[in-house]
Amino acid sequence: xxxxxxxxxxxxxxxxxxxxxxxxxxxxxxxxxxxxxxxxxxxxxxxxxxxxxxxxxxxxxxxxxxxxxxxxxxxxxxxxxxxxxxxxxxxxxxxxxxxxxxxxxxxxxxxxxxxxxxxxxxxxxxxxxxxxxxxxxxxxxxxxxxxxxxxxxxxxxxxxxxxxxxxxxxxxxxxxxxxxxxxxxxxxxxxxxxxxxxxxxxxxxxxxxxxxxxxxxxxxxxxxxxxxxxxxxxxxxxxxxxxxxxxxxxxxxxxxxxxxxxxxxxxxxxxxxxxxxxxxxxxxxxxxxxxxxxxxxxxxxxxxxxxxxxxxxxxx
Length: 316
What we know:
Helix 4 (about 125-140) crosses helix 5 and helix 5 runs parallel beside helix 6. The strands form two sheets. Strands 6-7-8-3-9-10-12-11 form an eight-stranded mixed sheet, with helices on both faces. The chain has a four-stranded antiparallel sheet with strand order 2-1-4-5, covered by helices on one side. The radius of gyration is 21 Å and the shape is globular. It is built from eleven helices and twelve strands. The protein has one domain (about 1-315): P-loop containing nucleotide triphosphate hydrolases (Rossmann fold), CATH 3.40.50. By secondary structure, the chain is α/β, with parallel strands linked by helices.
């Protein structure tokens, strides 16, 4: 079934390195995944795992030091023409983690939301521009009278909505949402997630969602890639990952998800992941498909062990 879907974004052997020479630090390596049109694909991992770096590499903020990124069949990594660069900006938008840092405090909301329209002249006349930004601001639950105000006059949740309106007014095909709810109150989080889901349904939007909280990701994602130290260690459809998690790191992340029942939470066994448990000295690992659409970073000995686990789970 997966093969029938249209691949809108393809990441192949991506590596991102910061610095050079002896100070070089590889933040992301051996990253491979496809994103299908209209789905929400989530990148999950703890702080510093490289998930935001991947998102920023897709939108060309972080240059790829190795590998390729293709969007709608066009290579968008490395040196590209000015026209192609503008096409990428027009079609891929990003909602940043910190809504207060990503909005210009000296500009009105009218200008902030209109900036992309100005840069690409995506309006016929002043009336058309005003109609577009009014629709964008109303679509995120704010009012047209808010357009004359400044970012500091809004709460964190409202600022994040302004960031979403700024991205959505461009009518992008792909939205990269970089931890868009981590800076928000719990009560506001569901509203922002529902807003993204609604945009997806109405506009056939594709979302790459970056997060560290698996419980949030379960609600919004079609497929999840789990990242540890710059490498994808497991990738599967959401329910498959929650039912048949195989990699020890994925299991440790799942064990950290709080349970609503206090009794279950109290008796829960926490799993601490230790990277030293893998012996890759001779038998080298690679990213392999263990079940249709379920990939894992493992060597041959581990693959045999994981297959045994799947057989046991199926028997039970």
